[in-house]
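Input record (one chain):
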Amino acid sequence: MATTQALRGYLLEEALAWLLRNSGYSLLTQGDKDGSELVQRRNTLHVVGRGTEHQVDALGEFPFTPAFSLPIRLFLEAKFYDKNRTCGLDVVRNAHGVISDVNQNFAYGGGSRPRRRYHYSYALFSTSGFSKSAQQFALAHQISLIDISGDSFTWLREHIHTLASALCAASPGQNAPNRIVNWVRSMVRLGLETPREVPGDSFSLIDERKSARVNQAVQDALNDFVQGFNNHGEAELLIGFPAAPFILPLHTTNRKEFLDYASRNPAHQVRIRHTADHGDAEWVITPRNDGAASYRLTFTLPQYIQDWIVSAGEDGQRRRSAAVKTDFLSNITIYRMKHSVLNVYQLMYEPTELRRR
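The corresponding structure, as predicted from the sequence alone:
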């Protein structure tokens, strides 16, 4: 049985698969079993580790292998908690345990058949941020934390909350059975056109004992969910890779503006500025030469960095903001897949003093 909170997490993972559909990683499915590392157990995909198998709800694979490395696969996990509860150390510690186990899944034996190996990474998305201890642990063990609690993702959180509440209200005991969860996730994938398994074909799976009116209410909520995301079809979550021990969720309300500019200027200078001077402020990227008229990307920094900036007081905030931009955000790389071709864009920031010099 899935609680409202668990169901919101599952729906968030489906939403992120939709937002990330062109950001370089291709989604692996139950049909992508490779025999040695991916197996299917009870309609879910598992990755084989050194000690055990690990269930994965969303697994992506990067299309090319970086120099002097292994092919990269990415675990994606999403947490949709209430506003007063941040994602804690226990979740990040579990992610570290999973990654350690699957990356050690290799044994040499004389005469054994050679097989491909992968390097697995882990990305945790949270709608309510992360605790201080979770951030410290993730930084030490290279677990990527992505905070999507900002204003740019309000529409996403509201659509997920509405559908999850409707499903649980129409289920026995206010919790959705697992078969309902699997069916709904498949229907969402079909509606959002994100590839994976084909959904069931009978809406009566919700609960045959429920009245047609209740079942129709659930169907309406599902339709509204899909329609809401399709209405944001120009929205896209781009993943920025700075020269830093964290990644950046870059949100744009008009992907065409960004892609048109980036296609003409794969490497270009940008401006980076605060939207406000407080702990949960968003940052904005615009091209230096053409300004916000060309495109606008927004993102949030990890909370421990934002807190460090704010703690400097009014006089020191500008100095610390400049240091963060120079040390961590001077070169942000974005990957995007288009027609099976991977495009690479570089956003380069230089302090005003350096540009003048």
